[in-house]
Amino acid sequence: MTTVPYLTVDVFTTTRFEGNPLAVIFDARGLTDAAMQKIATEFNYSEVTFVLPPEDPANSARVRIFTPTMEIPFAGHPNVGTAFVLGQQAEIFGKPVGDTLRFEERAGLVEVILERNEGRVTAAAIRAPQALAIGDTITGETVARCVSLDPGVVVATTHAPVFASVGLNFAVAELSGVEALAAARPNLAGFHEAAGRQTTSGHDFSLFVYIRAPENPWNIRARMFAPLDNVPEDPATGSAAAALGAYLVSLAPEADMNVRITIEQGVEMGRRSIIALDVTKSGGIVTDVMISGSCVSVMRGEITLRD
């Protein structure tokens, strides 16, 4: 019998069964691409990670990230959760685990800082692997159709709906208030139409909608929908949060800023998540984005590949 061990964690939370679940295959040597995709589809989490020895021995590991339908170059909660899992090991592929890990990923090198409490890893912070990139704008009507809302609740005061990325591309759009956010429901036909129009996303159309109050603009409430990737709604999306945070800081009038942003997500799903972002802007350009959050262990087991 051939088996592969795994661990699952809930990410961006300190409460088990909240946050965003992640499965980590912490030694994926010998698995084919097809096997990785089948395992990710079987879990049906928004992402599953597969940990391999690094190509450069100076780094900690090579990490591959799969959704239920495809491999993606980068994502926030998989990196935070994978670092949490590996940080609890004495060593990774024969190397001692320190307080900083370096993951080789398709989007580039991801640096992770482990946070410990009395020697035990409780959280992790990752640096976005790419600079902020802004793509095409999207009509409010397209956004509204995707989430079954009236176009009038799509707000364009600060920015029009647009693609943004710091490693993985998302459509980001502001809504008028908590009522509109709560009423959002994914419309598969709308997502198919939106995906057919766009040319810059690099993967299926994923939509991050959010609200924020003028008196506290760096506290944000959000939801993320990606039904074309078999993720009708995601309870915590670090890569989308980081892209949005970097974009909003880039639009602020100050040339130099260090901003802590808190993004609450997953409330409507009963899986409340808290994503912390630290965004640095220098000379009018966003130069650094850190994504951090807590994790809690949930399950461990084995996947049977062959009897």
UniProtKB/TrEMBL annotation:
Xref: Gene3D superfamilies: Diaminopimelate Epimerase, Chain A, domain 1
Pfam families cross-referenced by the UniProt entry: PhzC-PhzF
The similarity annotation says: Belongs to the PhzF family.
User: PANTHER family given for it?
Assistant: ANTISENSE-ENHANCING SEQUENCE 1 (PTHR13774:SF32), PHENAZINE BIOSYNTHESIS PROTEIN (PTHR13774)
* Protein's name according to its UniProt entry: PhzF family phenazine biosynthesis protein
